[in-house]
């Protein structure tokens, strides 16, 4: 479960070191509160919810820091020959452009393979809300990549 928690934390935090801290705090809280987990429910969803709550708490606490960090310029373009890295960077930027609730729902369902019901339990919202968020996120990503010119397009040489 740790790799899945870490991957989800990286999407939330956008920083590997912060993600590691989030996972560590979530695991500690989960262990401290293990008696509150109902064995009839998904342990994975329960841990994802704890991780999400830790992230939201930390985000509220460092609001000013977060606003300053968001104003920093994006890293430069990938060097030629590293197309896969560039495509992954494009996807990461596109995901970061989504509103947090949509990004979170898409990552839980699409990347981590949670069911809509499990993702709803993690986010604390109805299943229909998760389905709508995933749908809107996928549509937004599809629009972004359809409107982006492919490599080599946009310049015509005669």
Q: Your description of this structure?
A:
The chain is an all-alpha fold and 158 residues long. 70% of the residues lie in helices and 0% in strands. The chain has eight helices and no strands. Helix 2 (16-32) packs across helix 3 (43-61) and helix 7 (116-123) packs across helix 8 (127-147). The termini are far apart. Residues 151-158 have low confidence and may be disordered.
In brief:
With 158 residues, the chain is an all-alpha fold.
Strands, count: 0
Report the β-strand fraction as a percent range: under 5%
Radius of gyration: 18 Å
Low-confidence stretches: 151-158
Straight-line N-to-C gap: 55 Å
Order of helices and strands: HHHHHHHH
Number of helices: 8
Helix content: over 70%
Question: What is the average per-residue confidence, as pLDDT, rounded to a whole number?
Answer: 82
Shape category: globular
Structural class: mainly alpha
The biggest sheet amounts to:
none
């Amino acid at each position: 479960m740790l790799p899945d928690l870490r991957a989800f934390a990286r999407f939330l935090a956008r920083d590997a070191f912060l993600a590691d801290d989030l996972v560590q705090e979530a695991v500690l809280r989960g262990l401290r509160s293990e008696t509150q987990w109902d064995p009839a429910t998904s342990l994975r969803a329960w841990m994802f919810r704890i991780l999400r709550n830790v992230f939201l708490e930390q985000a509220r606490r460092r609001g000013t820091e977060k606003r300053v960090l968001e104003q920093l310029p994006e890293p430069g373009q990938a060097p030629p020959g590293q197309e896969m890295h560039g495509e992954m960077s494009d996807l990461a930027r596109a995901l970061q452009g989504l509103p947090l609730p949509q990004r979170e729902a898409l990552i839980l369902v699409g990347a981590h393979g949670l069911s809509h019901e499990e993702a709803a339990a993690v986010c604390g919202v109805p299943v229909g809300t998760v389905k709508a968020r995933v749908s809107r996120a996928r549509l937004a990503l599809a629009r972004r990549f359809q409107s982006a010119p492919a490599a080599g397009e946009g310049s015509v040489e005669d």
